[in-house]
Amino acid sequence: MITKEAIKAFGSIETPFYYYDIELLNKTLQVYTSLIKKYGYSAHYALKANANPKILSIIQKAGLGADCVSGNEVAIAVKSGFPADKIVYAGVGKSDKEIKTALKAGIFSFNCESVPEIRIIDEIAASMGKIAHIALRINPDIDAHTHKYISTGRKEDKFGISPWMFNDVSELFTSCKNIRLVGLHFHVGSQIMDMGVIKLLCTRIEELQKWFIEHGYNIANLNLGGGLGVDYENPKEHPIANFEGYFDVVNKNLIVRPGQTVHFEPGRAIVAQCGHLISRVLYVKIGQRKKFAILDAGMNDLIRPALYQAHHNIENLVSDKRKMRYDVVGPVCESSDKFDSNVMLPQTKRGDLIAINTAGAYGQVMAMRYNQRDLAKAYYSDELCRK
Ligand code: LLP
Asked: With 70 as the cut, is the pLDDT of residue 154 above it?
């Protein structure tokens, strides 16, 4: 939520910038943690969604662990206070240096994505005199019905170990002495709104884990990954993701054996709605059939619309005039630098403050300096609007 007080404070800040509603983040975390407590689940926040230090510190204090995808993310998680035994590390291409960083930190598990990777982790662990705890990231061959770039669980996706590789993996556990299997890991995609996908995942997990149990493995942990979607259309109506529905589906459909723990890796659903990209209108350009609102924020600040044709709700924070249609674009020299077409906004003029909402996940963290533009700074509701 962007309050009137916040809009007043925005007046003296250079745009574009990210604005975080810390109250909403805390509320989201409260709802989330009370549900995982209720079901006895564990959660590792996916740092890739937003690794802003203040946001990380709040999430760490709420008791979540960390899900990392690079050695630097592992190092940042440790620095932010996440206990090493609550850090998991996934990714198809872990470098030797990154593996060493994670082994040194003593993380909970490597989520391993291929046979050669497991062999290298074993070699490196042996050279360091350590035992690497590994979970197998299994490719369950499920279509998450989401954008093709964020769908990760189909058999031809690059992620995970497919069932026809299980025998090879099993041989590794016999021959490699510095790895220990601690669980199975799954992640089928992001921005999943269809709970049928989660139900199907639970069914597939049961089919897949049976192979390991029948072959004498103890599967201590089941990690279902992240992926729960958020409402990009109507963020004000649904500021908190459907955690209740999600966990209800898991609780009813996942078979959990005695002694097994169940883990999750939420990213987007924790941070998306609390973040906004705030921008000013530089120019309104009137075309023959279109009106362009040209912002001072561009695709380098928020790349999701250009990269995934993602839709973000856009608001004019200061005009209450009659609504008109605009193409909302950025200043970067690329035709794809467009936030959305045919957006109904109150009549907009140079200097108006524009909010691009639901930008807390994969926003600031994916920003870049293309065109040598400055990186947008971040401001926080609890600092900007002190009570
Ligand atoms: N765990 C694993 C192994 C993942 O690959 C991901 C996200 C997550 C957890 C967290 O998923 P979430 O809860 O955030 O859906 N940049 C894209 C999203 C990429 C997601 C990559 N993996 C976007 O802006 O939509």
From this structure: no
One DSSP character per residue, 128-168 reads TT--EEEEEEB------SS-GGGB--STTSSSSB-GGGHHH
pLDDT band at 159 (very low <50, low <70, confident <90, very high): confident
Ligand 1 atom closest to Cα of residue 303: 24
Asked whether residue 367 is domain-assigned, the answer is: yes
The CATH number of the domain holding residue 341 is 2.40.37.10
Ligand 1 pocket residues where CB is under 6 Å: 46, 48-49, 67, 90, 150, 152, 187, 190-191, 225-228, 265-269, 304, 308, 361-362
Percent residues over pLDDT 90 in the chain? 93
**In sequence order, which residues have a C-beta less than 8 Å from that of residue 210 and are 6 or more positions away?**
none
Distance 15 CA to ligand 1 centre (A): 28
DSSP SS3 for 212:
helix
Cα of 151 from ligand 1 centre, angstroms:
9
Average pLDDT, the chain: 95
pLDDT band at residue 142, thresholds of 50, 70 and 90? confident
Given 265, 295, 325, which residue is the final one in a domain? 265
Q: Is pLDDT above 80 for 148?
A: no
The total number of structural domains in the chain stands at: 2
The residue whose CA has the least distance to atom 24 of ligand 1 is 362
Its sign, for the CA torsion 242, 244, 246, 247, is: positive
How far away, in angstroms, is 281 Cα from ligand 1 center? 31
CA 66 → CA 79, 204, 308, 348, distances in Å? 12, 25, 25, 42
